[in-house]
Specification:
This protein is of the alpha+beta class. It has one domain. Helix content is 19%, strand content 43%. The protein is built from three helices and 15 strands. It is globular.
């Protein structure tokens, strides 16, 4: 009887620890992010691919069915110091060089460092602070809770979830975007 009780206790403990683990996807060249973009009352599927990645260079490809595809190129200054997102409409058939003060769907090293040190950062001319997500604010992908950092704007109406991954702090959800559409990650391949 003691053995059964001990086995049952260990099983419950193991299940509860496993249930609390967060999923951190391994992002590298070739990874694909599937987003749902909310704009003008429409939901548009967006596929983002990590086409090329190195310490001072990141190229993301994009594809929107019916619109075409293209790419965004971010270089060292952008990846190191940017504090704004690039929210212009994508240009099919082109690779756009992103300005030094902007990034596309990732946070810069300076923003990542500020989050780690001060628990806050600036993005698109707004101050964001790290918040503990409620159960309803946790993001689940393929039945697993994503390991993300929730940032909330000072007015409380804008929120950004980024992967808790210093090598690839990708935006996985944004709501109340003051500069462009809202988006939600729906899959990673």
């Amino acid at each position: 009887m003691k053995r059964i009780f001990l086995a049952l206790t260990i099983s419950v403990f193991t299940i509860s620890i496993h249930a609390q683990e967060n999923y951190t996807p391994d992002i590298r060249q070739g990874a694909k992010f599937r987003y749902s973009v909310s704009t003008g009352g429409q939901e548009i599927p967006l596929l983002i691919s990590v086409d090329s990645v190195s310490p001072g260079y990141l190229k993301l490809g994009w594809n929107i069915e019916g619109m075409g595809n293209g790419g965004w190129v971010m270089k060292k200054n952008s990846l190191d110091k940017a504090v704004r997102g690039w929210w212009d409409e994508p240009s099919a058939g082109n690779d756009i060089d992103i300005a030094d003060e902007q990034t596309v769907l990732v946070f810069s090293k300076a923003q990542w460092d500020a989050i780690g040190k001060d628990k806050k950062t600036d993005y698109d001319q707004q101050n964001y602070s790290v918040k503990t997500p409620s159960d309803q604010q946790k993001l689940v992908l393929n039945g697993k809770v994503l390991n993300v950092i929730l940032l909330e704007g000072q007015n409380g109406s804008s929120r950004i979830w980024i992967l808790n991954n210093p090598q690839f702090p990708a935006i996985v959800k944004i709501e109340g975007n003051t500069m462009g559409p809202d988006l939600t990650l729906v899959g990673i391949e």
